[in-house]
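Predicting holo structure, NDP bound.
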Amino acid sequence: MTGRYAVFGTPIAHSQSPRIHAMFARQAGIALDYVAIEAGHDDFAAKLAASGVAGANVTLPLKEDAFALCAGNVSARARRAGAVNTLLRDNEGWRGDNTDGPGLVRDLTERHGLDLRERRVLLLGAGGAARGVAPALLDAGIHSLYVVNRNSARADALADAMGEPGRVHARGWDALPALGEFDLLINATSAARSGALPPLPMGLASLRSAAVDLSYGEAAVAFLAWARAAGCTHAVDGLGMLVEQAAESFLLWHGLRPETDGVYAALSGQGDALVTAD
Ligand code: NDP
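Done. Tokens:
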């Protein structure tokens, strides 16, 4: 088996996806050509068409563009998220899926041993990553989800899209001091890249809380340091999610679920050298 695959986004030069998929392919005995292609809103469709790929991953800022490009030919989870991170070819053209949510849930439950059932969850951010993980968290049985975003209209839109008004609540940052304690706190903002995360009240977390930053490397340092200072027992970055969402894409393309622990260990060894988004 062989094939050409790619990840599209901006910036993309430091993406770990080519390395992760190369490790999966070696494991599976597949001859795979997986490259990173720089593309923005204006040239994504043309570059995708010219690339000749059989499948693709899509990252910041193109997940909503990819959703639109599939013209309704999307999985239920991608439809709920309104965002696509994995493209597959089928008889109708491009089919879109979203593996970010299953990737996060698998990392938290299987790698880090967290039980998500009946948990009160805070989701900071309402961009593409937040939209991808929210449906999977709800499906994993959490009790309630508070979506807090700088632009509160985007938080409202995400909450509305989930269609569960009793479980999903939208708030602005100014509401944080009044929200009480959470079992799980997720940083799905890109604040570390575009300045700094606004201050977070210590009362959001306790010794029973777990925290995860969807970023990794340097971008995750500030939020995870806050989480440890606030007493969180678990404070994990997004590297495990990155590997798990990639494994889920690999499964969709090749029908095989790769073993992820060795790949996660290989990437973890790089520590702060990892700075990019996927
Ligand atoms: P988007 O650009 O779609 O969304 C960015 C979000 O961050 C928005 O909610 C935005 O708020 C918020 N934000 C940005 N700057 C600030 C700030 N200074 N203060 C407060 N909020 C801010 O990005 P994505 O959702 O695609 O990505 C978010 C993060 O998740 C990135 O760091 C990315 O690397 C990571 N990620 C990790 C993955 C993994 O596999 N580990 C997969 C996907 C993403 P507003 O709406 O107000 O602008």
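Residues 60-61, 100, 125-130, 149-151, 154, 188-191, 194-195, 197-198, 214-215, 219, 238, 241-242, 245, 277-278 surround NDP (CB under 6 Å).
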